[in-house]
Amino acid sequence: MSEDGTCPKCGMQLEAPQSGALSSSRVAESSDEKAPWHFKLMVASVAIYLGWRVIQLFA
């Protein structure tokens, strides 16, 4: 899609054109989102499991 929101092949308007300020605020919005608690729990569990496997490897 082009910068002005049109299709590059047919020229049909697909979405409203976005200004630079609006798109930068959308980036700031998406970076404020936090990971869900269950994803953090899964990452911590995997780290503990792999740490234990490394300990078993050298023991």
TrEMBL record:
Organism superkingdom: Bacteria
Residues covered by region (Disordered): 1-27
Protein name as it appears in the record: Uncharacterized protein
